[in-house]
Structure formats: structure tokens, C-alpha cells
């Protein structure tokens, strides 16, 4: 059936937000799609705030609430079966997982209206030999369910309505794919109904099974009015080879340069709903700042802690003009020694230990700073190998952050802070890995200070060695509310190194990195050398892929943990154990097995033994 004239189209939009908030991109999406629908049903899984509901209603449509179960598919079903479809020519199903439209929708609806089909979608998945949920099951090509439409006569066919009435329970994302998305296309194709998609990506499918995710900028060039939200949130290991893991930044750049779509709507949503680590990992936000400064609008804040590295900080102070330069010294002796070498007009202060110094900066200096941008450098860095000053990190930071970083921020309105690339040497290999423990410690303080954003508690965090940054003043506003403590600056990986990225993210900005190509090349060579050395320990001739190596590492770790807990008495007497380890073994003997399992694990799989048993 083709659609001519002005079809009577019903739009069914499925929506869920954990906080009940309706972001601006959702209102824009619903409003624009509503121009092509006679009416819309806006199905909310869960609840909305009063403001959220008002915003959704204003976008156009009738709001319907339901229990948050069954994902968008079950929401589609409940709304569909509640409608009288007698006078409807087409039902359009769509959800919140897309940003857009980034171009007028007229062309898509006109093109698809002229095609003689029973159902259609924006895109298809080409399928795969092995389904993600079962390698023995095929994954056939199918119309993707985030945007699809169904027409008469299929719309009023008993078999179509029966399909929805008998829809099985959907409890997980893969349930939605396996029990609906794949089955829908297959079932109705076999019944003789015809289908098509607006975007034909077959030319790209030889390289990648999902061009909408792997090559989103290319699908936008082909005329896609939408980009998938998860493009900007995908784990690095998910799309490393499709192609080279650069999809998010490429799509962002295309939208910013080639369309009128306000990318701030994307930033507003992803910074509110995802952690800074998730967003940063997806984007690979590296920028090449010009070497020459364009003006003097930066307030430089330098904090000196160690005389051995003062030369680098002095060079940084002279590298470019600053609107106002503050130099904070750990001791008066340092101030006397270096004040004369600083540019004229530098405000100098003695602020004691490192933790106190940064507190001085944010409690006293931040309110006085009026420039748009702030630079912070310090030589108070953790020792390398517990012996050497970390000149590698400081040199990289001075080189990166004294360039014209404001030029990058002026070109990227959604970037709030820039950092030097993560240092890649022995002591920094696991930087960020302790975030789960650190997060538990500082999360209550963040909440008390009104710093609200997803923290990504269970994943590695974004740690910036030394906490050095070049940032918009606005991106530091959340951090200025936090009461910093001396303990925030202690240890090899202190809390301070996480706080500036979190602050920018909580203020609604993305973060990024800047460095010269030469510096990035050295960092890449270091990272590759360390990764290769680790790979050589775990690879076998038949298992060389990253995911297989990772699986092998986890399996060996879990086996080790289990064996540690299964040490026999004979092994215990023969082994050279500490008194704590012997006590643990005695507890295993004295307690009931189920009590001991709860004590050391509480989980089905073997848990890590107490830290002191591994030291």
C-alpha cells in the first residue's frame, strides 16, 4: 500500500527516564514528528516530574502512563491495543533512543509514502551467523524497532493484532531483540507482507554489521534524519574496529558543522544520564590546540610545591600573557626564591601543604576570578616508584595546557575542561582503576555539595594526574561548592584527580584532552608496549582477540581466588603464611560452609579474598 495525500497517521512514542525528566531533545523530537501525525500517544514507562509531563504534553500528544516493565516494545503494545485503528492509515512506532531530526522529515515521509510496502523502518540490521544470546542460533536481518511503521491492510489484520496480544514477557534488552525485533520482521515476511527501509546501507555492511552505530556520520550523509543516542555512550571495546572507534566524535562533528541541529541538546542529555567516564570513553576527545595564544583572557593559577621542578612552572608562567596570574607557594622560602622570576603583577601567596593550597585556590581565588577560562598547574605530583618526581606528567601538562586551549573551547561550546592526555608509564597504568572504592568515599560529599551527575560507580573513572586543567570558569562552579579536605590530595591516586572532570560533567559539559602529535605518538607507543607485554602472557595461538584475552585473564583470576579459599590444612601447615592468613583458614574450619561463604563472598561466583591476604 502506498500513502497519498495526507495520511491519517498515529504516532506511538515510548519513553522512560530514571529521574522522570524530559530533556529538551525529547520535546524537539516529539514536536517535529508530531507534524506528520494526526495524533500521538506518548507512552511513559514509570513516572514523570510535573515539569517533565508539562514539557511532553506541550510537545504534542496524549500522555499515557504504565508500569516500567517490558521496555519500549511492551509500551508499544499497550498503546496500540488501546486504540481504535479503523480510520488509521499508518501507525508509527518510535522511542527516545535517537537524537534529531537533524534535517526536515518531509523527504523521508514522502519517499516511504511512495513505496508499496506493508511495513517499513528507518534502518535494518543485516543479521549475523551467531546471535549474541546463543552462538548456535542465527541472527536474521530485521527492521530495527526504534523507528518503524505499519500500514493497512496489515494494521487491521487479525494476525498482526494477535502477534501483539501474544507478545511474550520482555525482561531484558536482548529479550526485546530476540522476542520481538528479530521475530517481527521474520514472521510477517513469511506471511507475505512486504517491507523496506529508508536507509540502504548494504554497501557498508561488508565491513560492519550495524552502520548506524559503526559509521553514523556516513548514514547522516546519506540523509538519515536521526543519530542513535548510544553512539555517544558506547564502550570503547564495543566498536574498536568499526571503524577505529571514532564514530562518536565523527558524528558529533558532522552534526555541528553540516546541520543546524543544536548539539547542546545531546550534551545536556548524556552528561545528565551517563558518567563522565562513559561519555569520554565513547568520544576519544583529543584536540590539537594552536601553539600560539590568541589573547590574554586566561587567569593562570600556579601552585609550587617542589623546588626541583620549579623551572617548568616558571616557563609555563612566561609562556603566554595572562589576565591575572596567581602563584601559590608551599613555603615562604619558595616564594622568596621564585617571586622575582615571575611576570610583573603576579599575585603571590603562601598556602602551606598541597591540600591546603588547592583549598585556598577554590575558596579564596575562585570567587575573585572573572575571566572566562582558568589554568591550573602544579608540581605537587605523586612520586614515581616512590622515589622520582613525575617530570613526565608535568612536562606533558605544561606543553598541553599552555597552548591556546581557549581556541578549542571557543570552537567546542559543549566542552568544559581540557586536560593533558593520561600519562602512560609504570605508575599510571592503573590510574582510574580505584574509582569504585574512591566513589564510595566521596559520593556522600558530592551529594551534600549539590554536585549531581551519574558517577559510574562500578567502572574505572576518569583520573587526571595532578588534577591539572584548563577549564571554563563555569565548569568549575560545582567544584567550588565542595569542601575540600587534606585527604583528597593524599596517596598515589588521590581523590583530587577525579574531581575536576566530575565538576565539568556535573555542570553539563563534556571534557577533552589536548596535546601535540609528537606527545600523543609517544603515549601511544608506551601504551602499545605495555599492552603487548601483557598480551604475551595470556595469548595462545588460537586465541589472540582482545575479548578472548580478557576472558582468559578473568578466568585465571577467578581460579586463583577459588584456590586460595580451598587451601587444605596440610598445605596450610607447609605454607609460609601470615597470622592473618592462618586466622582466615581457621575461620573456614570453624564456621558452617554457608556462613563462611556469606562472610567472604555473598555471591554465587568466587569473590576476591580480603585485600590483606593478597599483599
Describe what you observe in this structure:
This protein has an eight-stranded mixed beta sheet, with helices on both faces. A seven-stranded mixed beta sheet has the order 3-2-1-4-9-6-10, sandwiched between helices. A two-stranded antiparallel ribbon has the order 5-11. α14 links the parallel β14 (324-329) and β15 (347-350). Residues 602-615 have low confidence and may be disordered. The chain folds into three domains: 9-204, Spore Coat Polysaccharide Biosynthesis Protein SpsA, Chain A, CATH 3.90.550; 286-524, Spore Coat Polysaccharide Biosynthesis Protein SpsA, Chain A (Alpha-Beta Complex), CATH 3.90.550; 539-614, no CATH class. It is 42% helix and 13% strand. The radius of gyration is 28 Å and the shape is globular. The relative contact order is 0.07. With 615 residues, it is α/β, with parallel strands linked by helices. It is built from 26 helices and 19 strands. α1 (24-34) runs parallel beside α2 (50-59) and α13 packs parallel to α16.
* CATH C-level of the largest domain: Alpha Beta
Quick one: biggest sheet? Answer: 8 strands, mixed
Any low-confidence stretches, pLDDT <50, length ≥5? Answer: 602-615
Which percent range describes the beta-strand content?
5-15%
Structural class: alpha/beta
Mean pLDDT score? 86
| Annotation, overall tally of beta strands | 19
Number of helices: 26
CATH topology of the largest domain: Spore Coat Polysaccharide Biosynthesis Protein SpsA, Chain A
Q: Number of domains in the coordinates? A: 3
Strand order of the largest sheet: 12-19-17-18-16-13-14-15
Determine the fraction of residues in helical runs and give it as a percent range. 40-55%
Radius of gyration: 28 Å
| CATH-scheme architecture of the largest domain | Alpha-Beta Complex
Q: How far apart lie the N and C ends? A: 71 Å
What shape does the CA trace take?
globular
Amino acid at each position: 500500500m502506498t500513502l497519498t495525500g495526507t495520511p491519517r497517521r498515529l504516532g506511538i512514542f515510548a519513553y522512560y527516564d530514571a529521574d522522570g525528566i524530559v530533556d529538551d531533545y525529547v520535546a524537539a523530537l516529539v514536536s517535529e514528528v508530531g507534524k506528520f501525525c494526526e495524533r500521538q500517544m506518548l507512552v511513559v514507562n514509570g513516572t514523570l516530574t510535573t515539569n517533565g509531563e508539562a514539557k511532553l504534553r506541550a510537545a504534542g500528544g496524549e500522555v499515557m502512563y504504565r508500569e516500567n516493565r517490558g521496555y519500549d516494545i511492551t509500551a508499544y503494545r499497550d498503546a496500540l491495543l488501546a486504540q481504535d485503528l479503523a480510520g488509521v492509515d499508518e501507525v508509527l512506532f518510535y522511542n527516545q533512543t535517537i537524537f534529531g531530526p537533524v534535517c526536515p522529515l518531509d523527504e523521508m515521509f514522502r519517499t516511504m509514502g511512495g513505496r508499496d510496502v506493508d511495513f517499513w523502518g528507518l534502518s535494518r540490521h543485516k543479521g549475523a551467523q551467531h546471535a549474541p544470546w546463543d552462538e548456535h542460533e542465527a541472527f536474521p536481518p530485521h527492521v530495527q524497532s526504534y523507528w518503524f511503521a505499519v500500514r493497512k491492510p496489515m494494521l487491521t489484520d487479525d494476525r498482526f493484532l494477535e502477534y501483539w496480544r501474544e507478545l511474550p514477557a520482555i525482561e531484558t534488552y536482548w529479550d526485546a531483540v530476540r522476542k520481538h525485533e528479530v521475530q517481527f520482521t521474520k514472521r510477517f515476511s513469511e506471511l507475505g507482507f512486504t517491507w523496506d527501509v529508508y536507509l540502504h546501507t548494504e554497501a557498508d555492511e561488508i565491513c560492519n554489521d550495524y552502520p548506524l552505530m559503526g559509521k553514523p556520520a556516513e548514514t547522516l550523509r546519506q540523509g538519515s534524519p536521526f543519530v542513535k543516542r548510544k553512539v555517544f555512550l558506547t564502550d570503547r571495546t564495543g566498536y574498536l574496529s568499526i571503524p577505529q572507534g571514532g564514530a562518536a566524535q565523527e558524528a558529533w562533528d558532522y552534526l555541528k558543522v553540516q546541520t543546524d541541529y543544536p548539539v547542546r541538546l545531546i550534551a545536556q542529555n548524556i552528561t545528565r544520564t551517563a558518567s563522565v567516564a562513559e561519555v569520554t570513553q565513547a568520544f576519544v576527545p583529543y584536540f590539537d590546540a594552536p601553539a600560539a595564544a590568541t589573547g590574554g583572557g586566561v587567569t593562570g593559577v600556579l601552585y609550587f610545591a617542589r623546588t626541583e621542578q620549579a623551572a617548568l612552572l616558571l616557563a609555563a608562567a612566561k609562556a603566554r600573557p595572562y589576565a591575572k596570574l596567581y602563584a601559590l607557594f608551599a613555603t615562604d622560602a619558595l616564594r622568596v626564591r621564585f617571586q622575582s622570576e615571575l611576570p610583573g603583577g603576579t599575585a603571590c601567596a603562601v598556602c602551606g601543604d598541597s591540600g591546603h593550597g588547592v583549598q585556598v585556590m577554590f575558596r579564596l581565588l575562585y570567587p575573585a576570578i572573572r575571566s572566562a577560562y582558568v589554568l591550573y598547574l602544579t608540581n605537587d605530583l605523586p612520586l614515581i616508584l616512590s622515589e622520582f618526581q613525575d617530570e613526565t606528567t608535568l612536562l606533558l601538562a605544561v606543553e598541553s595546557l599552555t597552548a591556546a586551549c581557549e581556541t578549542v573551547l571557543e570552537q567546542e561550546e559543549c566542552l568544559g575542561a581540557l586536560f593533558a592526555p593520561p600519562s602512560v608509564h609504570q605508575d599510571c597504568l592503573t590510574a582510574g582503576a580505584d574509582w569504585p572504592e574512591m566513589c564510595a568515599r566521596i559520593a556522600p560529599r558530592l551529594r551534600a555539595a549539590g554536585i549531581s551527575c551519574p558517577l559510574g560507580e562500578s567502572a574505572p573513572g576518569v583520573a587526571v594526574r595532578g588534577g591539572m586543567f584548563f577549564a571554563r570558569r563555569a565548569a568549575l562552579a560545582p567544584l567550588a561548592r565542595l569542601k575540600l579536605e587534606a585527604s583528597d590530595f593524599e596517596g598515589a591516586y588521590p581523590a583530587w584527580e577525579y574531581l575536576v572532570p566530575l565538576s565539568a560533567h556535573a555542570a553539563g559539559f563534556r571534557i577533552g584532552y589536548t596535546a601535540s602529535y609528537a606527545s600523543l605518538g609517544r603515549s601511544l607507543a608506551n601504551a602499545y608496549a605495555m599492552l603487548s607485554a601483557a598480551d604475551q602472557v595470556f595469548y595462545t595461538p588460537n586465541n589472540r582477540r582482545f575479548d578472548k584475552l580478557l576472558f582468559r585473564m578473568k578466568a585465571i583470576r577467578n581460579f586463583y581466588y577459588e584456590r586460595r579459599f580451598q587451601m587444605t590444612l596440610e598445605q596450610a601447615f607447609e605454607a609460609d603464611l601470615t597470622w592473618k592468613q592462618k586466622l582466615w583458614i581457621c575461620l573456614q574450619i570453624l564456621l558452617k560452609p554457608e556462613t563462611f561463604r556469606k562472610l567472604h563472598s555473598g555471591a554465587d561466583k568466587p569473590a576476591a579474598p580480603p585485600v590483606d591476604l593478597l599483599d
